[in-house]
Amino acid sequence: MDAFCGSRFWDANVTLHTDNPDLTPCFQNTVLAWIPCFYLWSVLPFYLFYLKCNNRGYIVLSVLSRFKTVFAFVLWCVCWSNLFYAFHGIVQSRTPPPVYFVTPLIVGITMLLAMLYIQYERLHGVQSSGVLIIFWFLCVLCALTPLRSKIIGSSAKDPMEDRFRTTTFYIYFALVLVELILSCLKEKPPFFSPVNLDPNPCPELNSGFLSKITYWWFTSMAIQGYKKPLEEKDLWSLNEDDRSEVIVQALEREWNKQKQERQQKKDVAYVKNSNHVTNHVDGTLEESEILISSNRKQSEPSFLKALLRTFGPYFLIGSFLKLIQDLLSFVNPQLLSMLIGFIKNKDAPVWWGYLIAALMFFSAVLQTIILHQQFHYALITGMRLRTGIIGMIYRKSLIITNSAKRSSTVGEIVNLMSVDAQRFMDLTTFLNMLWSAPLQICLALYFLWQTLGPSVLAGVAVMVLLIPFNAVIAMKTRAFQVEQMRYKDSRIKLMNEILNGIKVLKLYAWEPSFAEKVLEIRKNELRVLRKSAYLNSLSTFAWVSAPFLVALTTFAVYVTVDEKNILDAEKAFVSLSLFNLLRFPLNILPQVIGNIVQSSVSLKRIQHFLSHDELDPNCVETKAITPGYAVMVKDGTFSWARDLEPALKDIHWLVPTGSLVAVVGHVGCGKSSLVSALLGEMEKLHGEIAIKGSVAYVPQLAWIQNATLKDNILFGHAPNEQKYRTVLEACALKQDLEMLPGGDQTEIGEKGINLSGGQRQRVSLARAVFSDADIYLLDDPLSAVDSHVAKHIFDQVIGPEGTLKGKTRILVTHGISFLPQVDSIIVLVDGKISEMGSYQELLKQNQSFAEFLRNYAPDEDIEEDEPTVVEDEEVLLAEDTLSNHADLADSEPVTNEVRKQFLRQLSVISSDGECPSKMSTKRRLYDKKPPESPSPKKGLSEKLIQAEGIETGTVKLTVFWQYLKAIGPLVSLFVCFLYCCQNAASVGANFWLSDWTNERVVNGTQHNVHMRVGVYAALGLLQGLLVLISSFTLAMGGIKAARVLHAALLENKLHTPQSFYDTTPIGRIINRFSKDIYVIDEVIPPTFLMFLGTLFNSVSTMLVIMASTPLFAVVIIPLAILYFFAQRFYVATSRQLKRLESVSRSPVYSHFSETVTGASIIRAYKREKAFVHVSDMKVNDNQRSYYPGIVSNRWLGVRIEFVGNCVVFFAALFAVLGRHHLSPGLVGLSVSYALQVTMSLNWMVRMTSDLESNIVAVERVKEYAETETEAPWIIEDNRPSEDWPTQGEVEFVNYSVRYRKGLDLVLKDISLNVKGGEKIGIVGRTGAGKSSMTLCLFRILEAAEGEIRIDGQRISELGLHDLRSKLTIIPQDPVLFSGTLRMNLDPFNKYSEEETWKALELSHLKRFVSSQPAMLEFECSEGGENLSVGQRQLVCLARALLRKTRILILDEATAAIDLETDDLIQMTIRTQFEDCTVLTIAHRLNTIMDYTRVLVLDKGTIAEFDTPSRLIASRGIFYNMAKDAGLAQ
Q1: Higher model confidence: residue 899 or residue 1018?
Q2: How many CB atoms neighbour CB 1432 within 10 A?
Q3: Which residues of 762-790 are buried (b: 16+ CB within 10 A; e: fewer)?
Q4: Is the pLDDT reported for residue 402 higher than 50?
Q5: CA torsion through residues 44, 46, 49, 51, sign
Q6: Average pLDDT in the 410-416 region?
Q7: What's the confidence (pLDDT) of residue 870?
Q8: Beta bridge partners of 1501
Q9: Where are the beta strands (DSSP E) in 1351-1395?
Q10: How far, in Å, CA of 417 to CA of 710, rounded?
């Protein structure tokens, strides 16, 4: 090298051992000149590849770009002028050394490269180039030393010497500096880049490199969030690459590749041919079924590969950064060792110290920047993973078969979206630790070995022993978690049912029995929590004591093995800082492995779901069909799943185009199945099925979206006002619209909650009519509406003269009256077509159909319109199959989508029958306004359900106080005191260590080694013990608080009046019970623990540094101010972002559950694409608030760590300044404390913010635990006698009632008297207030004025339970709870087994129940899904028979049953309740024609009240209704 330069390459006397250091010219001309060049050439290939992949279009040549290019060109000229000068020297025969040729050549070519870079980047749309900024920065940095040498040298040396080179160097330096400044400026956005129409684009894309690495571009949002709480509109749009549609498309591509690969392997494996077509896309065959089930392990395509291919490359950038950061983290301990060496060596030049302090600062800053970039990459990958997985699951759920859907309930699918996708997201954060942790451990051990030799092994042994200890704890904790999740799930499921059936619970006064169940589960849940708290405090103990125990064993072994081993400051503190580095990877590794295990389970679940069979789009032929026919089924056999009995057998059926076909049959004979088969929803076992043209489908249970009424009807079609009006008219919705507060802009709640059953059905019908399809499949649309409405709809829409004439209509019906008007009728019996033909033909054939008609049609001329019987039935596996396969009871019953209305939580069940006046009232804006004029202006949509309030601003201290009160104030104080002691012990131990290292060395040994080790050990163990006690105490307090808060919430919710449930979505209440209680149970206590730990830690660090270098106090103030600002800005913004994120998350899931429930309807109308688009939008909205959340953490991290790095820098700097009076031990102590402070500061802000965001849960639970309650359940002083009411006399006195304050009266000034034992029928048009009367008797609605008396006793003076338990109701919607049948009949176990069986016998369920193997213990599934609607209604009848009180209220209990069952019920009621007072709300007048009196309500007042015969004679409202129903002439 010396020959190459013509002078010495390295001279320690010039460079190191002097107070005026300098580098040799040779070193300057080679190493310093080549570093930037080496850097630029080494990144070239990677960078080019990166630019090729990320092309953003070119940027127009700007002034800035021209300047940069010109300066780079000039630089090239300057460098090469030096080269020519060297050649000129040869010519003048003064041959310069080779370095003068090589260096200008290399530097010149590099400058050319930089110039090309500038242009190449411009063409690829790079607005600010990180690569070049670093390059110019290195150039300037490396030119600083030569610059200093030249300036010092020019005054000393001969002025003529090398004047040319000096001049060019000055020019070079000036130009490089200018380039650095220019490259920090950013270019305009690329030209031709897609026009960004975003009102609020994310500034990240167009921000400069420096802004990106310091996250400066985020500052605007931080400031905005600090000034006022952020709102949805303040959020930036997502970057293109993070949008759902882009990500899912990429992932879908990879997944389809995987599926094809797997399919090819499969095809090779099973080359058998199938002899029958199935409804599956992948027709796996029965012969190979055995093979498949054994090879099922391999038969699913790998979702993991698809994920890796989609997201891997981006993640790897982060991994590379992680590698650099890991290496950098070992620089500071080495610098610490140098610093201590410098303090020891009193002769060292002082600039060494400054250099070390500066290097410490520089390496820490670099580490900060790289670490946060790495996190950013990892978290963005996580976010994209979640988006991708949610998108894939959503798309899949629209096309999976019913049998597949049966194997995973809605809740499970939503779990895949929420829990499993979340797991992946959480995993990415630390996934790199999988390789990085072992690397860090190896490096740390290597350096430790260098410092302390083999004694290190003792410390490592302790660490290794702690790993299994931690692992065992983790395993146990996991087991507890699983157990606790089980309890939690069952608690939430139960709460869900309670809230869905809250009305029924209130009517039956069953709340205490259910509250007891919930509290029982909760007790178990807390028991498990307590166990895991014991474990957690142990693991906290291990985590805190580990570094100390390791240090203790290592030092003890080191000093006792050999007397000559001296523990000096350098060894002690360097090894301490290395041990601290070791602590993180050792602890995180088992966790990461655990997370990977969990994620692999999630992966399997997702993969399994994505590999489910899909509906075969070609199952129903749409092209070829016999001319003249619209529907053709040849030899069709269909079942709900391959492994179930066929539901339809040997169907041969042709439907001529434009005809009206009725499908009739008993409950469960397969009518709805037939419709589903036509839609391609069933498994086609064999045969052919063809349909010509587009389809509209009206399901038996209407599916209503949470949107405005108009949107529900248009369903994505272009609005056409005239057609829309006609449709409303035809479907009898005009009147309802007038009653709804917002007209057709009224927002419909989830599952159509604020519409009555009849309105929902009519909206569903209107949607079909509006869609203007070719074929209409109507599955019993007339069942849910009143008879006169049914007649209207049949005449106006379905019948031969209706809107749909000329279309092909297939109508499943129970209404006999319409049959004469249809073109042909098919009769289904047990899944086969038993007869087919026109009405007259079937009568002539005189088979089962004719008999059916004779029994149920009145005697007069059948052709005329006899009573319209309106029914609704629920198809279930016919009763016999149910009894044969009780195990299938949970199988998907037939109206598949509705069956599992699956995110039950997101809905509210409304049982208010036809009564839109109530509906309308339900919809007024429900907030604390004084009741204004109760007539809302039409046209303005009114929201029934208020948007969930997002708490804004800082969390009030009262909330913290409430939580501390729940823990117990003394406990809280005690915990703080323990923390103080614990930190004192820890600081004490370290001071003792520093004192020990300063002890004088006598004859190569130190004295009192054993005493030193003993005290050190005692202090350390004391600290560990205190940690154990404090974390345990805190955990116990946390559990107590959780118990108290949950109990208060539950207590309140069961006492809350019904009006609260009408205006609050169940999802919101469930959220309190699940999410918020979970936070109080499991998130707040550990957060508190961490917060206290980091707080005391940071404070003790500052104290230690100030004790050793008092000067440090000066810097603390500005640093604290910086810290405080960063923290306040961050907490305000991030808290609000978290809130926005959680509020925008639920729509993703509720829309998803809505979709799954209505999947068959969405498919029938071919609306899949639109729904996928909506889902993507909702996911994007959610990620819009999540993304700034990620960035806010990075923004904070960079700033806080900068403060921490300053602490390190000043601690080192003041140590250098005070080197003459400081001992090495104290310097080691203060700097090694400073090195840890960054972590503590960082965590402290995080914990403050987490605490603030999570303590909100307490606030939310409190809010719902303090809503107003209904009247007391039992008033001790006024309890009725056991047998009250004895007479059953009911009297209304000037009674008025409204649904909620500020709404119109629903019943106005009603007075009537019902004598004991009378049978009263209550009739009236929709919305007359029929249902409201029943609710008043039960005091679900409290009187606005007037009173009700039963047997002369005012009901308002009784406790609610005393009142409700003495009345019996058979409600309109039969609600069952999951549990045994016995529990559903008698939750308090009041009645004997005989009484129960007697009730079942009278309600005609005995045959069914005794055919079940479990008899009374027969498990009803959630909502009674495994019973048909008719059977559920009979269960409600059995409940009534068991209670048998003097007053029975029937609310259209018969709407869902076929005529025969209906007769049975009417008989039962007439015989069993002979002496009781019976009030019946009737839809079908024929059931009440023999009642004592009939009450006709109209608009909330009594219109007529007399015996049926007199009312008919008086020809009033009742007469008209009877005439419509064909009961009067």
Answers
A1: 1018
A2: 22
A3: bbbbbbbbbbebbbbbbbbbbbbbbbbbb
A4: yes
A5: negative
A6: 79
A7: 32
A8: 1498
A9: 1353-1354, 1367-1370, 1379-1380
A10: 30
The dihedral over CA atoms of 1444, 1449, 1452, 1457, expressed in degrees to the nearest 10, equals 0
> Which residues have a Cβ under 8 Å from the Cβ of 1087 and sit 6 or more positions away?
1247, 1250, 1251, 1254
d(CA 854, CA 258): 61
Q: Please check whether residue 16 is in contact with residue 85, taking contact to mean a CB–CB distance below 8 angstroms.
A: no
962-971 contacts, C-beta under 8 A, 24 or more apart = 962/1258, 962/1262, 963/1041, 963/1084, 963/1255, 963/1258, 966/1040, 966/1041, 966/1044, 966/1045, 966/1258, 967/1037, 967/1038, 967/1040, 967/1041, 968/1037, 968/1040, 971/1033, 971/1034, 971/1036, 971/1037
Under DSSP, is residue 681 helix (H, G, I), strand (E, B) or coil? coil
What's residue 106's pLDDT? 92
pLDDT in tens, 753-775: 777 778 888 888 999 999 888 89
When pLDDT is averaged across residues 652-673 and rounded to a whole number, the result is 85
Q: Contact, 655 vs 629, CB < 8 A?
A: yes
Contact call for residues 807 and 775 (beta carbons, < 8 A) = yes
pLDDT recorded at residue 780: 84
Q: For residue 1204, what are the contacts with CB-CB under 8 A and spacing of at least 6?
A: 364, 1237, 1238, 1239, 1241, 1242
Maximum mean pLDDT: which of 50-59, 1046-1055, 1282-1291: 1046-1055
- Kindly list the strands in the beta sheet with 1290-1298, ordered across the sheet, starting from the edge strand earlier in the chain: 1305-1314, 1290-1298, 1343-1350, 1353-1354
The reported pTM is: 0.75
Asked if 1477 contacts 1322 with a C-beta cutoff of 8 angstroms, the reply is no
Burial label, 1053 (beta-carbon count in 10 A; 0-12, 13-18, 19+): buried
Q: Give me the mean pLDDT over the 129-136 stretch.
A: 90
CA distance 782 to 869: 9
**CB-CB contact of 1280 with 1474 (8 Å):** no
Average pLDDT of every residue of the chain:
81
Q: Kindly state the average pLDDT of the residues 864-875.
A: 32
State the amino acid at position 47 in one-letter form. Y
Average the pLDDT over 131-146 and give the result. 91
Cβ pair 1071, 903 in contact under 8 A: no
d(Cα 1443, Cα 1343) in Å, to the nearest integer?
Answer: 26
> In the prediction, which pLDDT does 1187 show?
93
Amino acid at residue number 320: F
Encoding tokens for residue 544? 């805190």
Q: Name residues whose C-beta falls within 8 Å of residue 465's C-beta, 6 or more positions apart in sequence.
A: none
* Distance from C-alpha of 1397 to C-alpha of 1413, rounded to nearest angstrom: 15
Spatial separation of the C-alpha atoms in residues 919 and 1063, rounded to whole Å: 11
**Amino acid identity at 932:** E
Classify burial at 1509, counting beta carbons within 10 Å of its beta carbon; exposed 0-12, middle 13-18, buried 19 or more. exposed
SS3 content of the chain, % helix, strand, coil (to 5): 65, 10, 30
CB atoms within 10 A of CB 198: 10
Cβ-contact 919, 735 below 8 angstroms: no
Q: At what angle do helices 33-53 and 130-156 cross, to 10 degrees?
A: 170
The H or E element containing residue 1136 is: helix 1112-1157
C-alpha distances in angstroms, 20 versus 13, 17, 346, 349, 1392?
10, 9, 17, 9, 104
Residue 1287 has pLDDT above 70, yes or no: yes
The dihedral of CA 671, 672, 675, 676: what is its sign?
negative
* Strand intervals (E) in 1259-1393: 1290-1298, 1305-1314, 1319-1323, 1343-1350, 1353-1354, 1367-1370, 1379-1380
| Strand (E) or helix (H) holding 650 | strand 646-656
pLDDT in tens, 517-529: 899 999 999 999 8
Nearest Cα residue to 1322 out of 1466, 1478, 1519, 1496: 1496
CA angle 1291, 1294, 1298 (to 5 degrees): 105
What 8-state DSSP symbol labels residue 218?
A: G
Dmax (CA) of the chain: 138
Q: Which two tokens stand for residue 233?
A: 């509109």
